[in-house]
Design goal:
Chains A, B: GO terms for molecular function: D-lactate dehydrogenase (cytochrome) activity; D-lactate dehydrogenase (NAD+) activity; FAD binding. Chains A, B: Its EC number is 1.1.2.4. 2 copies of one chain form a homodimer. Helix content of chain A is about 35%, strand content about 20%. The first copy, chain A, contains 17 helices and 19 strands. Chain A has about 450 residues and is an alpha+beta fold. The longest helix of chain A is centred in the C-terminal third of the chain and has 20 residues. In chain A, helix 9 runs antiparallel to helix 14 and helix 14 packs antiparallel against helix 15. In chain A, strands 12, 13, 14, 15, 16, 17, 18 and 19 form an 8-stranded antiparallel sheet that branches. Chain A has a 5-stranded antiparallel sheet with strand order 5-6-10-8-9. Chain A folds into 4 domains: about 90 residues, Uridine Diphospho-n-acetylenolpyruvylglucosamine Reductase, domain 2; about 120 residues, Uridine Diphospho-n-acetylenolpyruvylglucosamine Reductase, domain 3 (2-Layer Sandwich), CATH 3.30.465.10; about 110 residues, Alpha-Beta Plaits; about 100 residues, Alpha-Beta Plaits, CATH 3.30.70. Chains A and B meet through strand 9, helix 8, helix 9, helix 11 and helix 16 of A and strand 9, helix 8, helix 9, helix 11 and helix 16 of B. The structure holds flavin-adenine dinucleotide (2 copies).
């Protein structure tokens, strides 16, 4: 259903030249980072204020027109694709850091601020925003997917790092969901409800986020193992000893090879752990020593600590580019990215079974992940023009979600549902999925906010 | 409206002798720990299984009969009082620890398990459940008020420590809201929605909670200050330096005097901080030293570290009895307990203004709190038979909530809304309060779950 002309006129009156129907604009907002087919919105809106966002919502409500938010478009399950058409609300022009409160270690930001931009602005304060999904995502998008990343094992996910939100509801009402207090027992946790809602309940127009103090000392290391088992056992033992890692990442041998080829690195083609510790100088030294013993017990090698910032930056840049390295390892391929998260005691089993399953298929699927949380991804590389491969990747992904649930885990540790996981929601949530639908209908009775996502489709 | 006879018959068929209408039973479930007038339920149900709870919900729904959950009845805002009559669902017989998963550091428990009972069962595992609201509350009650307490500054509140719930909805449906995975982006955060909902959206019949490793070393201390200002400044500086406290509690001179009289302690009648550090032996020593310097800079005295378990137990028992000590300081009094939480930079101002306000009134109001979170309480001691005093206490409490909001904080840091804070919800939440009502109506369309609480009353 195309957007009615009156709606476009009304939106144009509000936004002027910031309502775009240009081909390239629609096209850019109709693609995702992964395998999903193109789905173009009818128009892209670039609001600059909460009032404009509220006006957009009211106009869309009046004309029954879908509206789908767009942050940086880096989500991996086709989240931001306007699959029912309508208006794409692109938040890139709402990209200001409104307030930094160093003494309270929080900041108030607009949703289009990227995590890198925020951290640049924070540099002088000795504080940083810890959630780190590799991609340079927006804070609004990260909140909406309940993102996490390499540092969640220490600093938590977006669930833990958003204190409060300003949200525009489907009918244009503007609400605030919290205060700058560190905790509250005053009413239903609406902040928590909008975090992870993928834009299906409202549009986030402002976030108050927690910040962390730059640690006095940081130390990072990478080490290789002969097999996945001992690498994962190292993670489990480290957690159980209560050693507070800031990051602990796993990459398998396929990923190591891909990174070597892509970034000129020289990792042995083996499974690796990449770790980082934050704390006082002596605390970090103590942690590094204890961790080193566990690595040695598990036959890990090539283990070397570095406290030099440039080495660390090189290490994490490599890790952050691992997805693109994997993509490049099969020229022309697109990816289906899976996202299991299981209790840590089941991690080795989950990784081993997944690996065996992929090995039996004819699709490459490097594995990497935030193993400190029990979370890992297989990057299933498929020829976009080969439906047999895509079907095979979906079958593997489906078996991974079944495996996650069988092992007491979740179908998505951090990427979210979007289009790709909708078919698995019933298996994870059973009748609780209906409750999500009831909440959706209460807040968005016309079903206009990112339609086709998150809830059971009639 | 009394409960219809058919409803009682049906409930009796399910529960047999575990449906009680005895006077003492009704009376015991009609009182709270604080100043609220008695409000008796029509009957008390003691379910033993989730199926019985679901049957109770279905019968109540069929007969339009209110149902209000009861944990340990220690909540401070009249939360568990059945102010519209109906059935009180007492969870004390669902008090089993169902499963401890030491390797994953989680446990599955029934809602009637108390935090002390859980920690006794955990002793042999080297793990503990950290959330500590002083009172020996139930896990179901603690989840429902989003409780925290002395250790939240380090380990978080119930929001952070509940991984998943089993919930019986108003119509008797049974749902699960999560898995044992440490994080998830799969759908709306229903766990977070039921945590803090005060039994107005569903009855919690099972909880999966996070556990923590017993720290290798613990060190505690208490120190006195000449005035509130330097005590609070000590807290702020400690947080800003990133020293990881496990507990940091404030008591003012009135509380110190009350504790001396009640427990035979010998605190100087001055403001005090009580702190505890958890970590490795060297880590704790380092933290204690750094903290000691801050205390000295702020003129703190009598500062002494103790790592002996019996000293620590004595200290925290004293702290946990502070509420009863304050009550006993005015024989025959009842209490109105306030519960501000503000950004840490506003803590000194909030405490000082509150103290000045109380000093100008004719009511005693010792102040104490979990200052590491910016959270503190005034215990306003009133003669229950003197309406003028009660009115004065309410006026002070009202001004405290206004102060909290003016300083960017919340009207309740941890106790919740119950009956006492309902009148302040609009001020904190504005139109977001209506959204809570919309969610309530979606999940409990007949308005039977703990009616009269949480949402705007028509
Ligand atoms: C190389 C690579 C690595 C990645 N690594 C990680 C990782 O480690 N961890 C992780 O969690 N994710 C990871 N991701 C996924 C992605 O970065 C996250 O999902 C991120 O949170 C998306 O943010 P975005 O700004 O790109 O949002 P978008 O993709 O633009 O949108 C995501 C969803 O949020 C909605 N939305 C966006 N803005 C708003 C708003 N203001 N209000 C309401 N709804 C809104 C959209 O409608 C959509 O449903 C990775 C992606 C890539 C490409
Ligand atoms: C001396 C003292 C000190 C305290 N200190 C603190 C403190 O430091 N921090 C703090 O947070 N609180 C504190 N409290 C308050 C109190 O302990 C908490 O509010 C606690 O969480 C209440 O638990 P409970 O089991 O007693 O619940 P109850 O009082 O029985 O019930 C509380 C609410 O939860 C609902 N409920 C109970 N069980 C369920 C269930 N299974 N499903 C759904 N709803 C349910 C009830 O209907 C009610 O609305 C203190 C209280 C006292 C008396």
């Amino acid at each position: 259903m195309p957007v009615p002309a009156e709606a476009l006129t009304a939106l144009g009156n509000v936004l002027g030249g910031r309502l775009s129907r240009s081909g390239p604009d629609l096209d850019q907002h109709g693609r995702s980072e992964t395998w999903f087919p193109k789905a173009l919105p009818d128009a892209v809106a670039y609001p600059e204020t909460v009032d404009e966002v509220a006006a957009i919502a009211r106009i869309c409500a009046a004309h029954g027109c879908p509206l789908t938010a767009w942050g940086a478009g880096t989500s991996l399950e086709g989240h931001a694709l306007a699959i029912k058409g309508g208006i794409c609300v692109d938040f890139t022009r709402m990209n200001r850091v409104l307030k930094i409160n160093p003494e309270d270690m929080d900041a108030v930001v607009q949703p289009g601020v990227t995590r890198e931009a925020l951290n640049v602005e924070l540099r002088a304060t000795g504080l940083f925003f810890p959630v780190d999904p590799g991609a340079n995502a927006t804070l609004g998008g990260m909140a909406s997917t309940r993102a996490s990343g390499t540092t969640a094992v220490r600093y938590g996910t977006m669930r833990d790092n958003v204190l409060a939100l300003q949200v525009v509801l489907a009918d244009g009402r503007v609400i605030r969901t919290g205060t700058r207090a560190r905790k509250s027992s005053a009413g239903y946790d609406l902040t928590g409800l909008f975090v992870g809602a993928e834009g299906t309940l409202g549009l986030i127009t402002e976030l108050t986020v927690r910040l962390q103090g730059q640690p006095e000392a940081i130390s990072a290391a990478v080490c290789a193992f002969d097999a996945i088992g001992p690498a994962v056992d190292t993670v489990i033992q480290t957690i159980q000893l209560g050693i507070p890692m800031a990051r602990i990442e796993f990459v398998d041998e396929a990923t190591a090879a891909a990174v070597n080829a892509y970034a000129g690195a020289r990792f042995p083609v083996k499974p690796h752990l990449m770790v980082e510790f934050h704390g006082s100088a002596s605390g970090v030294a103590e942690q590094a020593e204890a961790f080193g013993e566990i690595v040695a017990d598990n036959g890990g090698a090539g283990f070397e600590w570095s406290a030099r910032p440039e080495d660390r930056t090189a290490l994490w840049t490599m890790r952050h580019n691992a997805y693109y390295a994997c993509l490049a390892s099969r020229p022309g391929a697109t990816a289906l990215v899976t996202d299991l998260c299981v209790p840590i005691s089941k991690l080795a089993q989950a990784v081993e079974e997944t690996r065996a399953d992929i090995a039996r298929s004819h699709i490459p699927g490097p594995i990497l992940g935030h193993v400190g949380d029990g979370n890992f991804h297989a990057i299933l590389l498929v020829d976009p023009d080969n439906p047999v491969e895509l079907a095979e990747a979906k079958r593997l992904a489906h078996r991974m979600t079944e495996r996650a649930l069988r092992l007491g885990g979740t179908i998505s540790g951090e990427h979210g549902i979007g289009m790709g996981k909708l078919g698995h929601m019933a298996a994870e949530h059973g009748p609780a999925w209906d409750v999500m639908g009831e909440i959706k209908r209460a807040l968005d009775p016309l079903g206009l906010m990112n339609p086709g996502k998150m809830i059971r489709q009639e």
